[in-house]
């Protein structure tokens, strides 16, 4: 499973949870932790792709050296 799929799963579970947890604390939790999540997942995915590219370049450079 990847980060994006895990975020989708969390969102689905949160929607199910909201059927039973509907107080001010639930709203605070959603605003503080869940609302920013899509942007954070998107940024993390971009950074992970950049890291993957960098690691591939480093491996290639190391292979050429030896």
Give a description of the structure:
- The chain is mainly α.
- Helix content is 85%, strand content 0%.
- The protein has one domain.
- The chain has helices spanning 3-18, 24-34, 37-65.
- 0% of the residues are buried.
- The model has no long low-confidence stretch (mean pLDDT 94).
Main attributes of the structure:
66 residues, 3 helices, mainly alpha
Detail the topology: elements first, then pairings.
Layout: H1 3-18, H2 24-34, H3 37-65
- Give the overall shape, derived from the CA principal axes: rod-shaped
Ranges with pLDDT <50 over ≥5 residues? none
Percent range of helical residues: over 70%
The whole-number mean of residue pLDDT values reads 94
Distance from N terminus to C terminus (CA atoms, Å) equals 35 Å
Number of strands: 0
Q: Report on the biggest sheet.
A: none
Residue share in β-strands: under 5%
User: Which class best fits the helix and strand makeup?
Assistant: mainly alpha
Number of helices: 3
Number of domains: 1
Q: Taking Cα atoms only, what radius of gyration do you get, to the nearest Å? A: 19 Å
| Topology as a string of helices (H) and strands (E) | HHH
Summed up, what is this model?
This protein is mostly helical and 66 residues long. The chain has 3 helices and no strands.
């Amino acid at each position: 499973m990847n980060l994006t799929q895990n975020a989708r799963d969390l969102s689905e579970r949160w929607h199910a949870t909201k059927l039973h947890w509907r107080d001010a604390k639930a709203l605070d939790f959603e605003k503080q932790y869940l609302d920013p999540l899509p942007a954070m997942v998107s940024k993390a995915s971009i950074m992970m792709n950049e890291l993957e590219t960098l690691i591939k370049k480093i491996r290639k450079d190391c292979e050429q050296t030896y």
